[in-house]
Write a structure and sequence with these properties.
This protein is of the alpha/beta class. Helices cover about 30% and strands about 20% of the residues. It has eight helices and 13 strands. The strands form three sheets. An eight-stranded parallel beta barrel has the order 1-2-3-4-5-6-8-11. Strands 9-10 form a two-stranded antiparallel sheet. Strand 1, helix 1 and strand 2 form a beta-alpha-beta unit. Helix 7 runs parallel beside helix 8. It is globular and about 50 Å long.
């Protein structure tokens, strides 16, 4: 790699959670290059009054580049129809896409430095999202790729928007990541989402960063001439012998050593304790206490050293 690895974090999608990103930057001694947030398709209201007006503006005002993970849950995660991809291509959500496109243009034109990573319909080779063929509703891989291309055409081209296509680090079901690729003309960056689940699930074991990422990174890198990123990654501390903070710290050090010798240009930590203790700052566990202002945070010292400059 000729350029330093860019780093980022997901700290939550509500503006109220963004103070965690500010504190994380102070701890690291350097800014976060990218901040990831998630949003569903709001088919009832103008998105300018939500994600653009509040979340993205707050991220940009803090000096970070937003990564908007745009999930086509059209009526909420539980209510989204199984055939959402074909419905989108059939034009059922054209009004929403037109509103989104106008709001995006307005936000971009607020300042010369406006940039956005737009990660649309991620992890299509899994079976946990309705836009993924393995989930049972979309049908074919072609239906997913058709949806991607339709949405990008509807939003329009703009050099300030980087479209990120990011499969899961392993294929779940019969559809390979390659079969879901929308094509080089529609994808600006490729990415891989991957997590070390450790011993948290009956199906999982502790995996090194190389074991998590190497196969899929090589596969997506071969798809075209794209920059490569990791939009979501993290490790649990749960080993076969229980929680092991030192093991997670080692995994963090191994991750940075691995990606700095790889094509990866950007890596965004999933800093939320969700299914397990993923976070490295304001975490459930850690090996150090950090004081920022009047707040104290539990953190993993390896991440602070590796991500800092």
């Amino acid at each position: 790699m000729t350029e330093p690895l860019r780093t980022g974090a997901f700290v939550g999608s509500e503006v109220e959670s963004f103070s965690r990103a500010d504190a994380m930057e102070q701890w690291q001694g350097t800014g976060l290059d990218v901040q990831n947030v998630f949003t569903t398709w709001d088919t009832a209201t103008d998105p300018l009054h939500g994600i653009f007006d509040r979340q993205l503006r707050a991220i940009r005002d803090a000096g970070r580049t937003p990564m908007l993970t745009w999930e086509p849950f059209t009526d909420g995660p539980e209510e989204t129809p199984a055939d959402v991809a074909s419905r989108i291509v059939a034009g059922e959500h054209d009004d929403y896409l037109a509103r989104f496109s106008r709001a995006l243009d307005e936000w971009l034109n607020e300042g010369e430095d406006r940039r956005l990573f737009l990660r649309f319909a991620h992890e299509p080779n899994g079976d946990w999202y309705p836009w993924a063929p393995a989930a049972g509703g979309v049908g074919s891989a072609d239906a997913y790729a058709d949806m991607w291309r339709y949405v990008r055409d509807a939003v329009g081209a703009d050099d300030r928007v980087t479209w990120v296509w990011a499969p899961n680090h392993v294929d779940v079901g019969e559809h390979t990541a390659e079969s879901l690729y929308p094509g080089e003309a529609y994808v600006d960056w490729v990415g891989v989402d991957g997590f070390n689940w450790g011993a948290t699930e009956p199906w999982s074991t502790w995996q090194s960063p190389r074991e998590v990422f190497e196969d899929m990174l090589a596969r997506v890198d071969a798809l075209g001439d794209h920059p490569v990123c990791i939009p979501e990654y993290a490790s649990t501390s749960v080993t076969a012998d229980g929680h092991d903070v030192a093991a997670k710290n080692r995994w963090i050090r191994e991750f940075f050593a691995y990606v700095r010798d790889s094509p990866v240009e950007l890596a965004v930590w999933f800093n939320i304790d969700k299914e397990t203790d993923w976070a490295v700052f304001d975490a459930e566990r850690g090996d150090t206490m950090v004081t920022i202002g009047e707040e104290r945070y539990t953190a993993y010292s390896a991440y602070g050293r590796e991500a800092g400059r």
